[in-house]
Specification:
By secondary structure, the protein is of the alpha+beta class. The protein is built from 6 helices and 9 strands. The two termini are 30 Å apart. InterPro entries: Endo_dU.
């Protein structure tokens, strides 16, 4: 990957909507694109609850937001979406040729995660492999008195500065804050109406 941090033009945040356990098969994945501190575009797709399409859904959303070959950083809210549907930051980076940064507000509890995976998923080893690879290589920074953990693919010096640069009104990068807000509201709408997600 030849992207330099100095050439970054935009930032994309990805987050998922709410869903009903035992009932929902899908929820929404929201992607929000920022240039500087300005929110300029949004894209939505569906992601299956506890499925295996996390990286595919993330890639599809990102490509809807990209223009030509512009440089961007993708911010993920951790790597588990729609339950235990995993977005692999290394695979997403390879597919999009963009820097991917997974942000965690707390360090993942590997023991608890592994126990849950073994209990509920026959393919737990495949999911665990990605989770352990990421959680074992987390970096940390302190922002406004709170420790934030992150994983970057590729692991470039200066990522912590990009995270700080994008934290404006809360303790998470602004693209993630807006993506979370939109995904939650749309997810609530689908839960209330009982309508599926078709995009």
């Amino acid at each position: 990957m030849s992207i330099s941090l100095e050439r970054i033009e935009s930032y994309i945040g990805l987050d998922d909507g709410m869903f009903l356990k035992e009932k929902s098969k899908w929820t929404v994945l929201a992607g929000v694109k920022f240039v500087g501190t300005s929110w300029i575009d949004v894209a939505f797709t569906k992601i299956s609850v506890d499925g295996l399409d996390g990286t595919d859904s993330a890639e599809r959303t990102v490509k809807r937001l990209m223009v030509n070959s512009e440089s961007a950083v993708i911010f993920l809210d951790g790597i588990t979406y729609a339950g235990f549907n995993i977005v692999d930051p290394d695979e997403l980076s390879a597919r999009t040729d963009l820097i991917v940064v997974a942000v965690f507000m707390r360090r993942p509890n590997e023991e608890r995660i592994l126990k849950a995976l073994k209990l509920h998923f026959p393919d737990w080893e495949d999911r665990w492999k990605i989770i352990h690879r990421v959680s074992s290589k987390l970096s940390e920074i302190n922002v406004r008195g709170r420790t934030i953990y992150f994983y970057s693919s590729p692991n470039k010096a200066g990522i912590s500065l990009l995270i700080r640069k994008n934290i404006v009104t809360s303790k998470v990068p602004e693209p993630l804050r807006i993506a979370d807000m939109l995904a939650k509201e749309i997810g609530k709408m689908f839960v209330r109406t009982g309508k599926g997600i078709s995009t």
